[in-house]
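Researcher: I'd like a structural prediction for the single chain below. Treat it as a standalone chain; there are no partners to consider.
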Amino acid sequence: MNHNTPLPPASPRPVRHLSDVQRRVMTAAQLRSHGVSSAEIAEQCRPGGPWQQLLPGVHLLHPGPPTSEERLHMVLLYAAREVSTSGVPVQPGAGEPHRPVYAEAMITGLAALTLHGFTSAPPLPSLERIDVLVPRLRRLRSTGCAHIVRTPALPAPEQVTGVPVAPVPRALADAVAQLTDAGAVRRLLSEAVRGGHCEPASVVRELNLAKLLSRPHVVDAVDALLAEGRAIAEARLYTMVREYGLPDPVWNVDLRLPGGPHLGGVDAYWPDHAVAVELDTRAPRHGHRQDDDALWSEYARKREHLERLGITVVYITPRKLRDAMEQQATVVRTALMASGDRDPAAHVVVLPR
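Model: Treating it as a single chain, here is the predicted structure.
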């Protein structure tokens, strides 16, 4: 099979600035910009001819099935808003082929997760359809291997192997929207967190926005995700204390006033310094701003109460623990060192949680 079928000799514009895949997959507008007439395109795409039209207005310039890379670019060419007749910047770089420019389109769903490196997502050749995310008002329909997914606001794409791909939380939501297998949903959500792709809260936020938390198998998977995410964050907190030489706290305890009310639970507490650390693992379930506000108000009330008693509370997000552990260790160490300059804290009872 020849995957480098050249353009007809009539092409007046050089194609050396195009990448290999751009020379194999082109829109009708791109072909015309290279001097190929509509009649010539139709002739090349005749049954048994050297070219194929597998999506409306998108041509594969060789016979036989497309590769996975070609399918991705075909779908993007079909869905993208054309920014010029060639779809690429006019001026090539010094000997470097241009990356295609795909305006208002990006790969999402299972194909995006595969590109992000998820082992629990199916390989690209096994996917009958490739999800592509576009703005809600674009006039496009799903056809062939291109499955159109609409959104009111496009996220910023990430470039993976030269292809614009939706961020992991959005790609997960689009994949889960089409899955009924509870095991598959759980494996994808688990890998997202265990593999360090994103934090549980960002996944839950996208599932909320997609209105997927009314599905029992998704709710069960989210419960497992949050439990796993908290366990991973707690393990990182243990690692931070050990690796950065902080004094040992008491772990995972409840605080109470002697004979008085319950003050709340904390993930780590240094009784001699009256310093507490709490992991901020908020993940509101209903997709409404007030849920997040209510959770934050609860955190704030507890913090205010403890600090009135002279206890310093340090909130750490799982993401900061993952991405900036040394910085978080410095914050905790500073709080411990400053304890000697504060008035003595009220006596509290520390109980296992």
